[in-house]
Design goal:
Strand 4, helix 7 and strand 5 form a beta-alpha-beta unit. By secondary structure, this protein is an alpha/beta fold. The protein is globular. It has a single domain, classed as Glycoside hydrolase/deacetylase (TIM Barrel, Alpha-Beta Barrel). Strands 1, 2, 3, 6, 7 and 8 form a six-stranded parallel sheet that branches. Helix content is about 50%, strand content about 15%. Bound molecules: zinc ion.
Amino acid sequence: MFGTAAEDFYGGAMSEKRNRIIFWFCGLGFMFLAGWEAARAKDRLAQTWQGASGDVGQVSMEPPRVALTFDDGPNSQYTETLLDGLRERKVQATFFLLGENIEGNEALVQRMQEEGHLIGNHTYHHIRISKVSEKEAVEEIESTSNKIYQLTGVYTSFVRPPFGEWKKGLEFHVTMIPVLWTIDSRDWVTQDVGKILDAVLPKVEDGSIILMHDEFAESVEAALRIVDTLQKEGYQFVTADDLLLE
Ligand SMILES: [Zn+2]
């Protein structure tokens, strides 16, 4: 009885995963890293400026977009405050979760899903993917994705490799898209709101993907101040998939 239920559960996950394989394999080749999109975003911005200085009819009306991404959570102390602040500001972000941090924080993961945030995978034990066997890397990633699936009903397609280190070709084994970043807030190093704002705000442009960690009070405060500042400048906050999949 139990065995059948478990098979159905994982069978469902696998068939959902298979359905996505066709879709992702069409796209994986050209959207491997965020850097590609950042280059395009620069082009778009240049075109917008060109339009503004020339024919007014050509001006793009689309607001510039930016994605906040948080690694290493969920965190029992700080993630809830961050989620409250994001909800107040009607902002969706992206959370790359560690499998080992999900236990005890299941309600936070479900809340992320309910409130429209994108949930991605950051491996189970924060491993250095380039230093382990392919088998171990796949296990680290799949065990985390399974945990997320059990809580949300969604098998994530996005993985942020710890330390930004990936293994060539691994995306085809796990059928996922590795997502890097264009701006490193260095929040875990400085743990200082002012320094985090200085590291991020001057660099933001249309298409930026900002790397932060929801495991420090300073990161949460800085993230919300980044939202307040950029919203006033007309930026729209989106989840990372919006910047990668267009
Ligand atoms: Zn990390």
